[in-house]
Write a structure and sequence with these properties.
Blueprint lengths: L10 H9 L5 E5 L5 H5 L8 E3 L4 H9 L12 E4 L10 H14 L6 E3 L1 H9 L3 E5 L8 E4 L8
Helix pairs in contact: 3-4
Keywords: Isomerase
Pfam family, one: RbsD_FucU
Catalytic activity: alpha-L-fucose = beta-L-fucose; beta-D-ribopyranose = beta-D-ribofuranose
Length: 150
């Protein structure tokens, strides 16, 4: 156990989040996503899991240590509902609220068509599978920077 580290973050996840650099992307996916086969194409090359958490709770844990990229560009993408790209699902609403709370500002997610999401996830640093059972609980995060102390 570590102090000030969310216990939901296991050692493998912490290692990957720390190893990532500015501009690297992270895929957080639901239980229906082809996580293992997609993860084999990523930089890390293996699937990471936080199986016992919803996408919202996993996002909360990850954002406790993971800086999002600057507000000048979109840094969180969501998988779009097929043939309804403007529809925001309940899980996406919840994750949006979690992102806004973690960032202390509105950080709007951008939509990614389902099959384009699969391809972008293959190009990510890693894939983290959650225990989310609701459809479209899949997100891409772009890592930002931590500024030096002033």
């Amino acid at each position: 156990m570590l102090k000030n580290i969310d216990p939901a973050l296991n050692a493998d996840v912490l290692y990957a989040l720390r190893a990532m650099g500015h501009g690297d992307t992270l895929a957080i996916v639901d239980t229906n996503f082809p996580a293992d086969s997609v993860a084999r194409h990523t930089v890390l090359g293996e699937l990471l899991r936080i199986d016992n958490l919803s996408a919202t709770r996993a996002m909360q844990a990850i954002l406790s240590v993971f800086p999002l990229d600057t507000p000048l560009q979109p840094s969180v993408g969501r998988m779009e509902v097929m043939e309804e790209p403007d529809t925001i699902t309940d899980v996406q609403h919840e994750v949006q609220a979690t992102i806004d709370a973690a960032e202390g500002r509105s950080a709007r997610m951008y939509g990614i068509e389902r099959f384009a999401f699969y391809e972008k996830a293959k190009q990510a640093y890693c894939v983290i599978a959650t225990g989310e059972t609701r459809f479209y609980g899949c997100f891409l995060l772009t890592k930002g920077v931590i500024p030096p102390n002033a």
